[in-house]
Structures are given as structure tokens and as C-alpha cells.
Specification:
CATH topology: Aminopeptidase
Helix content: 25-40%
Strand order of the largest sheet: 2-1-3-4-5-6-7
Radius of gyration: 17 Å
CATH class: Alpha Beta
CATH superfamily: Gcn5-related N-acetyltransferase (GNAT)
Number of helices: 5
Number of domains: 1
Order of helices and strands: EEHEHHEEEHEHEE
Shape: globular
Strand content: 25-35%
Largest sheet: 7 strands, mixed
Length: about 190
């Protein structure tokens, strides 16, 4: 599935026009066309693109503030391709990658339905404020609806006001069950 939108200016509050594309090659040839397309994770070139975008995201101050370890970069593409519930989107303008969304299907016992975890969502620094994050979220939501998912899940840093605003404007809210908020936690085992 492909989405196309004319890129709005950095101060525009209008969302880009979205249309399904039959194939991304035709959309790429349109000057100024922003395309969001699903990555073919069986293709090594697409895997390398995912690794590159994930590394850029990791280097950002709102990521880890440093790039991925070399060992991780060498393993990530193939590991993601082997994971049975992975899907990913890339946003491109004239063939230049500007952002990505890396997602995994999960399951909610409270809904007895599949969920989508948006594990990574990034837009390169020079392309922010153009509606690319919204287009990526719309592509993920469309895929989630096709899979009859109950909900989309993601994590965001407390101090990432820009991303929190994006997610809020797209309908996300802090996770709650009953009247209590949930806190994301982790335990590293490697």
C-alpha cells in the first residue's frame, strides 16, 4: 500500500492529501511528491534502508543520542525480516528517505484481538514539520485496520513534546486501564 501527499510547508497545519498508489515508481517520478510505502523486508536493499533510518533515529537527541552499535547494524535487517509479525513503512520525497515506521503485531488479551506496536517512528531532522509523521501514522493505522487490530500502541519520551503533540493530534493518549495510567517498564536480559 502506498500513500502520496503533497508536502505542506513547515508552518502549515493542513494534513497532506493522501491517495493510494498502484506502484511507487510512478509516484517517485513526480517532483515534490511525498510517498509512504511499505518496505519489502525480504529485499536486502530495503533491509539496509531500514537499518540506515533506524540508525539516524538512534543518533537523534530524542532517540538514544548515539548511533546503533556496529554489531546491531549488521544483524538488524535480517533479524527484522525473520521476525514473523514485522512490517515497516518509509516516507520518501523524490526517492529520498525522510522517515520510517517499524511495527510489530501483538495481541491484547483484554480485547482478544491483534494489536500493532509502533516500535520506531522517525522523521529526519530536515524534514520535520511537513506532515510526514502524520502520513506514516495513517499508513500504520490503515494496515492495523486491515489486520482487524484493536489498537495501536507506542512509547514516547516524556520530554519529547513534538512527538507527543503529533501522537495526541493523531488520537493517541496515555495508556489507561480503568482509572489508572500504565508505565512502560523494561528488564534487559542480554
Amino acid at each position: 500500500m502506498h500513500y502520496r501527499g503533497d508536502v505542506a510547508g513547515p508552518t502549515s497545519s493542513t494534513s497532506p492529501d493522501i491517495a493510494q498508489e498502484g506502484g511507487h515508481e510512478g509516484a517517485r517520478s513526480r517532483t515534490g511528491a511525498l510517498v509512504v510505502r511499505e518496505l519489502d523486508l525480504s529485499d536486502p536493499a530495503e533491509q539496509r534502508l531500514l537499518v540506515e533510518l533506524t540508525d539516524l533515529y538512534a543518533r537523534d537527541a530524542m532517540g538514544a543520542g548515539r548511533g546503533l552499535e556496529q554489531e546491531v547494524k549488521l544483524k538488524l535487517g535480517a533479524a527484522v525480516a525473520r521476525h514473523p509479525t514485522t512490517f515497516a513503512y518509509v516516507a520518501e520525497e523524490d526517492g529520498i528517505p525522510l522517515g520510517h515506521a517499524l511495527c510489530f503485531l501483538g495481541f491484547s488479551s483484554f480485547y482478544a484481538q491483534t494489536t500493532v506496536n509502533i516500535h520506531d517512528l522517525s522523521v529526519v531532522a530536515g524534514a520535520r514539520g511537513k506532515g510526514i509523521g502524520h502520513l506514516l501514522l495513517q499508513a500504520v493505522e490503515s494496515a492495523a485496520r486491515k489486520h482487524d487490530c484493536a489498537k495501536l500502541l507506542l512509547e514516547v519520551r516524556d520530554d519529547n513534546a513534538i512527538a507527543r503533540h503529533l501522537y495526541s493530534s493523531a488520537g493517541f493518549h496515555p495508556y489507561r486501564c480503568g482509572h489508572a495510567s500504565y508505565l512502560a517498564m523494561e528488564k534487559r536480559i542480554i
